[in-house]
Structures are given as structure tokens and as C-alpha cells.
Amino acid sequence: GSYFRSRLALDGEGATLYFISDALWAMDVTSSTFPTSPLMNVEGFGVYGMDICPASGDIYIADAKDYISNGAVYRYSRAGELLDECEVGLVPSKFAFVGEK
Fold first, then answer.
1. pTM over the 0.85 mark
2. What's the order of all strands across the beta sheet hosting 16-20?
3. 87 to each of 6, 11, 19, 70, 84, how far by Cα in Å?
4. pLDDT tens digit string along 83-98?
């Protein structure tokens, strides 16, 4: 259906699936039904990437903005609270997490 339009990621334990479909949704992998409300709204973002830090569980969203100027990365808690943000280069899309879990 319309749930999986873009970006899928699992948390470090493989217990929660995060996905973007007009909003950021979080779903227990053992659930047989989709969530009824999103974790957070992503309206206005040019979401071009998303991943979950396996060690902290923080949610990283890459915003490509207008695709011709620098993008941004937003870091959120598991509860969907904005922790920080930073400007990055053009069209950010992937994340790499280095270190032990």
C-alpha cells in the first residue's frame, strides 16, 4: 500500500522498523498491524536518506533541501525529539556509524 514510499531502517536490536511515508513511522517488527499515528511529521523536508544509529537508537534524517544547495542532517531521539542538526554538502543520503555497538 502507501506505507512504504521511501526509506526503511531497523534499530540496532532489529526490534523496531522505521519508515517514511509522508511522516516518520515506527513499528514493532512483531506487530501484525501498521501503527495508527506517526512518530513525527517530516512535511517540508526533502527527505533523501534515513538511518538509525545501532548504538544509541538515534534517528538520522538527511534533507536534500532543493538539491542544488547544501543539505542538512537532523538527529532525533527514539521518541522523535530533535536533538541537533547540522549543515552538510549537496544531496546527503547515506550514513555510516563507526564503533562498537
1. yes
2. 6-10, 16-20, 23-28, 40-41
3. 22, 24, 23, 7, 11
4. 999 999 999 999 999 8
Nearest by Cα to 44 from 64, 17, 26, 60: 64
**β-strands 70-76, 82-90: how paired?**
antiparallel
Cα(86)–Cα(83) distance, rounded to whole angstroms?
11
Q: How many residues does the chain have?
A: 101
User: Mean pLDDT highest for which of 18-22, 23-27, 33-37, 72-76?
Assistant: 72-76
Among candidate residues 95, 53, 41, 55, the one with its CA nearest the CA of residue 71: 95
b/e burial code for range 29-59 (CB count within 10 A of at least 16 → b): eeeeeeeeebbbebeebebbbbbbbbeeebb
**Cell digits of residue 24:** 516518520
